[in-house]
Fold Sulfatase N-terminal domain-containing protein.
Amino acid sequence: MSVSNILLITADDLGADTPGCFGGAGGVTPAMDRLATEGVVFRRAHVPIAVCQPSRSAMLTGRWPHRNGAEGFEPIHDGVPLLTDLLRPAGYRVGILGKVHHLEPVARFGWDYVRQVDELGMGRDPRAYAAATAEFVATAAAQRRPWFLMANAHDPHRPFHGSDQELSHFTAAERATIPRPSRVYEPAAATPPGFLPDLADVRREVAEYLSSSRRCDDVVAAVLGALEASGQAERTLVVFLSDNGMAFPFAKANCYLHSTRTPLIVRWPGHTSAGTVVSRRFVSGLDLLPTFCDAAGVPAPDDVDGRSLVTLLTGGDEDRRDHLVTVFHETSAGIRYEMRCVQNERFGYVWNAWADGAMAYRAENMQGRTWPAMLAAASTDPAVAVRTQHYLTRAPEELYRLDADPDALTDLSGDPERADQLTAMRRTLATWMRDTADPLRERYLTTVLDHAHVTALGRLRPFVC
C-alpha cells in the first residue's frame, strides 16, 4: 500500500442528518454532498463521545476518553501515543487549522504548521482556510514530504449566524472578519428535527444553525478546492466528519443517537469506489487513527481501541461491527453527567449514572432560543412538559427502538415485553466496561445488574439482539 497524504476535515457540532447526502434538506451542503459521490459514506458512524475536546482527543489517540485522559476539557495523558507521534518519524509534515487548543497539551502534538481561530476569520472564513491549506501543502511538496493536515471548521458551533449570541459573543472587530454564508436560511425553510418540538423560536434557531452549516460547507469547499489546485488530490486520503451532534437539546453532550452519530465521508483515490455506501456496519471516531496509520504505512499501537476501516473502505466486510458503545463524562462547564450507551441495528440503551431524581442536567445545548421556547410551551402543552422534565432529570436507564424511533421519543425500559432486549443490552455494556476497564464498572454491576448477572459475567460474551 503506497503512502498517502492525509486530509482530515472536521465540522464543529454538525448533526449527522444535516448534509443532503445523509438525508438533510437539499442544497445546504453541496460540497459535502459532492465529496460523498466521490467516496464512501458511512451511515452508522459515531464519535465515541459527544463533546468537542474529548471527541477530537479520541480521534487522534484511538483510545476511549477514560483511557487517554481527556474525559472532558483536560489534556491527554503523558505517555499516550498521538497520531502525530506516529507520523513524524515516517517523514510526515503535520499541520492544524483551527480548534488548536481542543487538542492538549498543544506542544506535545509538535505541529509544523498552525493557524489559530483568529487567523481564520474566527474559524469561519473559507478564503483563509483555502490560503492556509495551499501554503501548507506547497511547503510539504517543496520538501518532498507526505503530509497530514487537520482542517477544523468552527461552524456550525454556536453562536449561529444571525443570532443574538453572535452579537454578544464576538467583538465588532471579530465580526468584521467573519463572512456571510453563501446561503442564509429563513425560519419558513427550516424544519426542526424530530427530537425537538415544532415551535416558532425553534424554527428560527434551526434556520440560524442551517446558515452556519452552509458556511461550514463553504469552508469544506475551499479546503478541497485548494487541495485540487495543488495537484495532490489523487495522492490524498480525505476524511470528513463532525465532532458530535448539533448543539440543541437531546443532541450534543448526551448519548442519544443524534448525539454521537456523525456524517463520515472518506475519499481515497485508488482504494475507494465512488458512490459507495456502508449502511449496516457501525464504525467509530476511534477507528481513524489506525486507518491513518495504514494509509501512512506505519504500525498503530497494539493497544488502541479503534480498528482500521481499510477493509470496509476497499469493499470488504467485518461482521464484528454489529453494535457500538458511546460514552459521556462532563460538559464544557466541567459538570459530570456520566452516561453510557449501547446501540445496534434495532435498539439503543442508555445508562444515566448521574440520574438520581434530584440532580438537574444543564449544558451548552440549552443556550439560545430552543430551550427557553420549550420551557414556555411546557406551561400549556403537556407533551412538551413531559419532554422537558425528562431532559432535566432523566431515568437511570432508557431503552429505545431506534429503527422505528430514531428520535428517542418513547422509552421502553419499563415495558415488560422488552425485558429480554433490556437484559441483552445490559450484558453487552457490562462486558464492554470489563474489557475497557471502565472506572464505573463496579458501580454499574452493583446498581443495575442483579447478583446472577454479576456472578455469570465472566462467562458471558456480548449478546446483541
